[in-house]
Write a structure and sequence with these properties.
By secondary structure, chain A is an alpha+beta fold. Chain A is built from nine helices and seven strands; from the N terminus they run E-E-H-E-E-E-E-E-H-H-H-H-H-H-H-H. The longest helix of chain A is centred in the N-terminal third of the chain and has 14 residues. Chain B has two domains: 185 residues, Fumarate reductase/succinate dehydrogenase, transmembrane subunit (3 helical TM bundles of succinate and fumarate reductases, Up-down Bundle), CATH 1.20.1300; 58 residues, no CATH class. In chain B, strand 5 and strand 6 form a beta hairpin. The chains are: A alpha+beta, B mainly alpha. Chains A and B meet through helix 7, helix 8 and helix 9 of A and helix 1, helix 4 and helix 9 of B. Chain A: GO terms for molecular function: 2 iron, 2 sulfur cluster binding; electron transfer activity.
Chain lengths: 247, 280
């Protein structure tokens, strides 16, 4: 496959940045999108140019590191996948592909396509945990009966890998799908209920402080989420916050 | 522990958008039921309804709640939009938003602004006239038998809120005088005899049938109702989600109801100016 790539190049956080065109050939349909970028970077390095910086780690769809806004969609045109799981067979020979970083004030660009998503970490620190003693005398989890329905919902929420596709896709750069997944995974389980009130208040406050936008229920996040996190979680967070507010 | 911020937090703003929005949906139903009398009722019925809407104390409370809701919904919406724009200082070169969201969900602020312009225009057209300007009073022609004969004569009378009539001649002849645009006083005294109905019906029909601007406003009103339809198409179901009402069991029902509401209510509203301009 021969492709034209339009890639966002930005030297550092302070640089203004711009789209740069690259022609690339010899791309196999079975390559992953990141492998295609590896090929491009090899060529750039051989030419003595600065390779394109992009985030990646596990390359099997579970770490949430790879980002990229490809042809106007987070993680590209496919559904339920991360960029490392996107394959070049989704594109046609001769295609022009736009590759941009995730855009949000709370996700500042570090270099080229790499953005700083530590705002998500700070939201997690505000309450995305349970305070239990883990020094060897932990109770067996199965001692506490939990409804299958709730356990499944909690697990579904816990599959969030914190990649930030929800923020990148949202026209408001809202982080509500991410935060609501973290709130929900604990709110649905008895171990999480103990700190539920503080958790939702603290995490929402942290989210607002990071400068994410407000949810207007467009549903773009749910569609683009590689893990299929449901809008139900945002509704649950709304209920949790309301209940915590009037307590 | 963080304090709850029911006014300031991102979630708090959502609740208020949803609550005021749903209240305005209720207002639309009431307003529509009243306005449909322009098609299905008589002029007297419509004017009596208009009188009720401007004089009943319970309605007054509801109307203030409506003004408040419109203002709050608009101001909150503008503030949210500004914050949301700030949350992405550098935009995308290519954004395929149509792949993951509906057009109306992405354009609620534009639709809302157009609706605000419409509401302001609509209030200048009718609400302000009803409240502040001189209006014709509801009249009716009744056949009056002439005493001692078999003949009848047509008499033009004013309808009053007490149900009694005051003949136009009695006002022209100096028996009564009209004060405050609607009250009949016995001439030269402070004795209020009755209150007439402001003829909002005539004002409305004349407005949409006006040879110079009637068609323009008919089109503007119909266009605005299309805008309302799109605003509701996202807004109705969205309000439920904002208030936390999301259950797979009922989501289909809420979305379906929202679609029905978003189509039927604006359509019925839009029929009124069309009916008056082209058919009446």
């Amino acid at each position: 496959m021969n492709l034209t790539l339009k890639i966002w190049r930005q030297k550092n956080a302070k640089d203004k940045g711009q789209m740069v065109d690259y022609k690339i050939g010899g791309i196999e349909p079975d390559m992953s999108f990141l492998e295609m970028l590896d090929v491009l970077n090899n060529e750039l390095v051989e030419k003595g140019d600065d390779p394109v910086a992009f985030d990646h780690d596990c390359r099997e769809g579970i770490c949430g590191m790879c980002s990229l806004f490809i042809n106007g969609e987070a993680h590209g045109p496919d559904r339920g996948i991360t960029t490392c799981q996107l394959h070049m067979r989704k594109f046609k020979d001769g295609d022009t592909i736009y590759i941009e970083p995730f855009r949000a004030k709370a996700f500042p660009v570090i270099k080229d396509l790499v953005v700083d998503r530590s705002s998500f970490d700070r939201i997690q620190h505000a309450g995305g945990f349970i305070s239990v003693n883990t020094s060897g005398n932990t109770q067996d989890a199965n001692n506490i009966p939990i409804k299958k329905h709730d356990a499944d919902r909690a697990f579904d929420a816990a599959t969030c890998i914190g990649c930030g596709a929800c923020v990148a896709s949202c026209k408001n750069s809202s982080a509500m799908l991410f935060v609501s997944a973290k709130v929900s995974q604990f709110a649905l389980l008895p171990q999480g209920r103990v700190e539920a009130t503080e958790r939702v208040l603290n995490m929402v406050e942290a989210m607002d402080q990071e400068g994410f936008g407000n949810c207007t229920n467009t549903g773009a996040c749910e569609v683009e989420c590689p893990k299929g996190i449901s809008l139900e979680n945002i509704a649950r967070m709304n209920r949790e916050y309301l209940a915590a507010s009037i307590k | 522990m963080a304090k709850s911020a029911l006014l300031k937090s991102s979630l708090g703003k959502k609740y208020w958008m949803a609550l005021t929005g749903l209240f305005l949906c209720l207002f639309l139903v009431g307003h529509l039921a009243g306005n449909l009398q322009l098609i299905f009722g008589t002029d007297l019925q419509f004017n009596q309804y208009a009188y009720f809407m401007t004089s009943n104390p319970a309605v007054k409370i509801l109307s203030y709640l409506t003004y408040f809701s419109i203002l709050f919904h608009a101001v909150d919406g503008i503030m949210l939009t500004i914050q949301n724009k700030k949350a992405r200082p550098v935009g995308y070169v290519k954004n395929n938003a149509a792949a993951n969201s509906t057009w109306q969900s992405r354009n609620m602020a534009v639709l809302g602004t157009l609706l605000l312009v419409f509401i302001a225009t609509h209030m200048v057209n009718f609400w302000a006239k009803m409240h502040f300007s001189e209006m014709p009073l509801q009249q009716q022609t009744v056949s009056q038998p002439i005493p001692m004969t078999n003949e009848k004569i047509d008499v033009v009378v004013y309808n009053t809120t007490t149900g009694s009539f005051i003949a136009q001649q009695q006002v022209e002849g100096g028996e009564f005088e009209v004060r405050n645009n609607k009250e009949f006083y016995i001439k030269g005294s402070d004795i209020k005899f009755a209150e007439g109905y402001k003829d909002l019906y005539k004002i409305t029909v004349d407005f949409f049938k006006d040879p110079s601007y009637g068609l323009v406003f008919t089109l503007f009103y119909v266009f605005s109702m299309a805008v309302l339809a799109f605003h509701l198409l996202h807004g109705f179901a969205s309000a439920f989600q904002s208030l936390g009402a999301n259950n797979p069991k009922y989501n289909g029902l809420i979305k379906g109801l929202g679609k029905l509401f978003a189509i039927i209510v604006p359509l019925l509203f839009a029929i009124i100016p069309i009916y008056i301009h082209f058919i009446k």
